[in-house]
Structure formats: structure tokens, C-alpha cells
Write a structure and sequence with these properties.
heterodimer, A: mainly alpha, Alpha-Beta Plaits, two-stranded antiparallel ribbon, 11 helices, 4 strands, 7% strand, B: 160 residues, mainly alpha, 86% helix
């Protein structure tokens, strides 16, 4: 892989790195202030992200698809909406901590509407923050903003559900017979390529299928890998 | 660590212990999966955090607020909402900040718009969200959140 191609693939990282170099060159004290600011957020992130990852994996393991569909799916109705608000509101951490959990819930049958509700309430209506808000902006402010925000989320999650189809999210492709990796969903964790080098390899930081029609005695291993894939990007269908 | 984060940790650890008691092999698989998720997101998350650190230094929220306070309410609202989309501030810093704004005489509408987009809409998190949910979902969710942030702010201005 050429250097330029690598830089292009990590465009965002490249831009941030170049900006840091520029800021340090022009004004070193501003540069170190930026690093100090970032350190604070890294601490905040490390307090919550690892536990969310573990919780997501455990829920994925023990809660069957039917249950998720029943409670958060398209037909869950008001119960599903309420539950989504609860999940989002009692959470902690920044909005991106919610991404892996919402991806997992959607793959297991949660509706787009409920995913949008979880993400939005995760961002703005945190129960732990309500007291803080009342303290700094007054209880009346807090109460009115809370009611309006919940109402707004109800409306725009409904709109999102009308506009966005399940197929618009990565990981909903129809598979041809054989082994298949959804490259949009793959995060490049390389678990599959390490466990079964005969079937998968890494290319441009994503897994690709080496052999789409595995041997009979590879099947048990393949089933394990399909389950282990953090984003369920691996699919296998016989015919 | 606030009490809710602590509760999530304790709950998850109990869940993990129960899971381990019930099925060792599957639990190990789940942990491996969690680790894989972490590895997959780590690069993007660190980039986002360093970008936020830089933006907060170059565009300190307090200065943005001072600038916004001098404009007409409608312009101030849109500008405040726009600034809110770039930066991402944790809620427990955002509330005292918006509190000082309101105390200093900035009207309530731009302050609320700023508060909502600050936490809900993210330009810096856009690449990560796109990777996880696809472009259409990300564009629509962020777009609608931005519009409704302004609606919430305007309605609050009328009520309060």
C-alpha cells in the first residue's frame, strides 16, 4: 500500500495530526492546552466505553433476537418507545459510546425509530444530568426543556423511521451462496483472519473472504467465528 | 465517576459473573467480541477526542458565547446552534456554561439551541457514525436533531 493511499484512508486522522503539528509550530502553549483538554475527554471515555462494550457483548450473547424484536422492534409500539427512552436516559458517557450498542440492537431486530430514540436521549436527557441542570438553570428551565426535548425526539424519531429503511444501515445485504463479509460493517478487528487464516485475510484494514466455500471440517470453526465477529459482518449460506 | 456510571459497572460485572458461571466458553467468546469492538472503534474515538481538544482550545465556548450574545436573537440562535454542532462538551460542563450565559443576559433561545446541538449533533463524530450506521441514517439523524434543536429553543423562548 502506498503512503498516499494510507493517508487517504485515514483522512480525518491525517487532518487532525496536521493541525496539531501546525498549532504546536505556531503557538506551543495552545498545542499543549489542546492535549490537556483531550486528556480530560480520554479519561471520561475510558470510564464508560469498556463497560459498554462488555455489556453490549453480554446482551448480544444472552438476549435472543425474538426478545429484542418483541421489546424494541417495529411492533413493540409505546412499550418499545418508553423502553428506548429509559435505556438512553439512564446511560452515561458521550453519544458515541452508544454506537456499538445501537448497532447490535438494530442487527437483532430493534426498529430504526427506537434506535434514534436511544441515541438522542443518550445525548440530551440524562437522568444524572437533570439535577445539574436544575442547579445551574433552575428547575423550571429544566422541566420545560425536558418535556420539549422528549416531544421533539418523539416527532423526529417518527420521521426518521419513515425516511430510513432498515437496508440503509450497513449489514443488511442479501448474500450469495457461500461465505461473505460485509465490508461496510467490518471494523477491521482481525479476529476472523487470526482464527481462520485459511478462510479470511485482511486487506486495506478490512477482512475479505479467501475461500468462499469452506471444507466440511472447517464448519465448526466458521460458526464460532460468525458468532465472535463484533459487528456480525460475516454471513454464510449454503445454497 | 458518577453514581450512574458506577451502577453500570457494577451491574455489568455481576452480569459477567453470572454469564461466566453459566457458560464459560460463550462468555469468553463474548469478551473477545467486546475487545474486538473496542479495537475497531479505538482509532476513530481517539481521533475524535483529539479533534475536540483542539477545537475547544481554538474556539473556547466562552468566547463563542460572548460573540453570540451581541447578535440579534434569530441570527444568534442559528449561529449558536451551528457552533454547538462543531464542538462537543460534556453535559456537566455545558450546563454551568449555559447558566453563565443566561445570567450574563444572553437570551434564552440561543442558549438552549447551543445546549441541544452541543450534545446531540456532532460534526466530529460524523465519520464514526457514518461507519457504524451508514451515510443516510447519519445525515438524517444529525439534520433532524439540528432542526429540532432550533424548534425546541424557539418554543422555550415563547414559554419562558
Amino acid at each position: 500500500m502506498t503512503m498516499i493511499k494510507k493517508l487517504k484512508e485515514n483522512l480525518f486522522l491525517t487532518v487532525v495530526a496536521v493541525m496539531y503539528i501546525a498549532v504546536f509550530a505556531i503557538n506551543p502553549s495552545m498545542g499543549s492546552a489542546s492535549v490537556k483538554n483531550s486528556g480530560y475527554y480520554i479519561k471520561e471515555m475510558l470510564m464508560i466505553m469498556p463497560v459498554i462494550f462488555i455489556l453490549t457483548a453480554l446482551l448480544d450473547l444472552w438476549v435472543p433476537k425474538e426478545k429484542i424484536m418483541q421489546f424494541l422492534g417495529r411492533d413493540a409500539g409505546a412499550k418499545g418507545i418508553f423502553l428506548s427512552f429509559v435505556v438512553g436516559s439512564i446511560s452515561a458517557g458521550p453519544i458515541y459510546a452508544a454506537f456499538p450498542m445501537c448497532v447490535m440492537l438494530h442487527k437483532k431486530g430493534a426498529s430504526i425509530r427506537n434506535i434514534v430514540i436511544i441515541l438522542s436521549s443518550w445525548a440530551v436527557i440524562k437522568v444524572p444530568m437533570l439535577l445539574n441542570e436544575a442547579k445551574f438553570l433552575g428547575p423550571k428551565f429544566m422541566a420545560i426543556r425536558w418535556v420539549l426535548t422528549v416531544a421533539a425526539i418523539l416527532v423526529f424519531s417518527w420521521i426518521s423511521d419513515k425516511v430510513i429503511k432498515d437496508e440503509d444501515l450497513p449489514g443488511e445485504v442479501l448474500t450469495k451462496p457461500g461465505l461473505h463479509v460485509n465490508r461496510d460493517a467490518c471494523m477491521g478487528c482481525s479476529i476472523c483472519a487470526n482464527s481462520a487464516p485459511a478462510l479470511f485475510e485482511m486487506q486495506d484494514k478490512k477482512a475479505i473472504v479467501k475461500n468462499a466455500h469452506p471444507e466440511e471440517n472447517d464448519m465448526a470453526l466458521l460458526q464460532t467465528i460468525i458468532q465472535e465477529c463484533p459487528v456480525h459482518a460475516i454471513e454464510y449460506s449454503e445454497e | 465517576m458518577d453514581i450512574f456510571t458506577l451502577a453500570i459497572w457494577i451491574g455489568t460485572l455481576i452480569f459477567l459473573a453470572l454469564s461466566f458461571a453459566k457458560d464459560k466458553v460463550k462468555t469468553k467468546q463474548a469478551l473477545k467480541m467486546g475487545l474486538g469492538m473496542g479495537k475497531g472503534m479505538a482509532g476513530s474515538v481517539f481521533t475524535i477526542i483529539f479533534a475536540i481538544g483542539l477545537i475547544l482550545t481554538l474556539l473556547p465556548p466562552a468566547e463563542i458565547a460572548g460573540y453570540v450574545g451581541k447578535q440579534s436573537v434569530l441570527l444568534a440562535t442559528v449561529v449558536a446552534a451551528l457552533f454547538g454542532t462543531i464542538t462537543l462538551v460534556p453535559a456537566f460542563i455545558a450546563f454551568p456554561l449555559v447558566g453563565t450565559l443566561v445570567d450574563a443576559g444572553v437570551s434564552i433561545v440561543p442558549s438552549v439551541a447551543f445546549l441541544t446541538t452541543l450534545t446531540m449533533v456532532g460534526v466530529v463524530t460524523f465519520p464514526l457514525e457514518k461507519k457504524e450506521f451508514g451515510i443516510k441514517f447519519t445525515a438524517i439523524r444529525n439534520g433532524l436533531s439540528f432542526l429540532f434543536a432550533i424548534v425546541i429553543a424557539l418554543v422555550m423562548g415563547v414559554i419562558m
